[in-house]
Each structure stands twice: as C-alpha cells, then as structure tokens.
Amino acid sequence: MTRVDWAGGMRFVGKGASGHEVEMDAAEPLGANSAARPVETLLCALGGCTGMDVVSILRKMNTEPKALRVEIEDERATEHPKVIRKLRLVYVVTGPVPAENLKKAIDLSLAKYCPIANTLAGVAKITYETRVDAA
Asked: Is the preceding omega at residue 96 within 30 degrees of 0, hence cis?
C-alpha cells in the first residue's frame, strides 16, 4: 500500500511499501516550494522505471552502459485537468553500447516491462530518441 499524508500548507509526504518517503509541494504562493510537484514526481518515476529496465536488459546483453540519463519533455493540455498529451524521452547513454541493443532495450521497456510507461501510453503519445556518447 502507498500512503500520502498532508504535512501542512500544500506539502504532502508519500510512503510506499519500500518505506522510503517522497515529498511533494506546490509552487509559491500556494505552497512553500519545498519539494517536487506531483507531476514532476510522476515523470521522474517514468524515467526511473524505464531507465532501470534499459540498464537491466543491456546488462543481460553484456553491453552495460557507463552512464544512462533519461530526459523527459511533456506536453500538456491547456484546459484543466491539463493532462499529459505527449511525452518525449531522450535516452543519453555513455559507453560502447551498440545502437541495436539500446533500441531493443528501450522498445522492450516501453512496450512490455515499464508499468508507468504503459499506463501513461493510454493517455499520452510517447516517443523517444537516443544519444550515445562512446567515451
């Protein structure tokens, strides 16, 4: 079970089964700007979820990257509830990772393994690109 408690003002603290806390707050003047916004937290979760998949799959292919970063751009509707309409993910990989391995790992993550990507795909168009730094 995940639990989210109001911590005063517009600050909330969530805690999932792992026991780790996730802090959220609103921007000023509504909140104190003391933590990430809920949608930022969702997008970070997407990046972490697909990133973990990609690293795991690349490890199995014996092509683990030296570094991996997922940059996420979102486009939202202009009217409330301002849902996310489009997501563009840029996977930035450092190390000698063959492009075909990277593509396969990302495709598997987005289509099969990442529950967050698959949930968001029901409402948002998700596209991606890759950048590889062979250093």
From this structure: no
CATH number of 1-36: 2.20.25
- Summarised one tens digit per residue, pLDDT across range 71-115 is 999 999 999 999 999 999 999 999 999 999 999 999 999 999 999
DSSP 44: H
What is the pTM (predicted TM-score) of this model? 0.94
Q: Where are the beta strands (DSSP E) in the chain?
A: 3-6, 12-15, 21-24, 67-76, 84-94, 125-133
For the chain, the residue count is: 135
Distance (Å, rounded) from C-alpha 107 to C-alpha 120? 15
Cα angle value 106/111/115 (rounded, 5°): 100
Domain boundaries, the chain: 1-36, 38-133
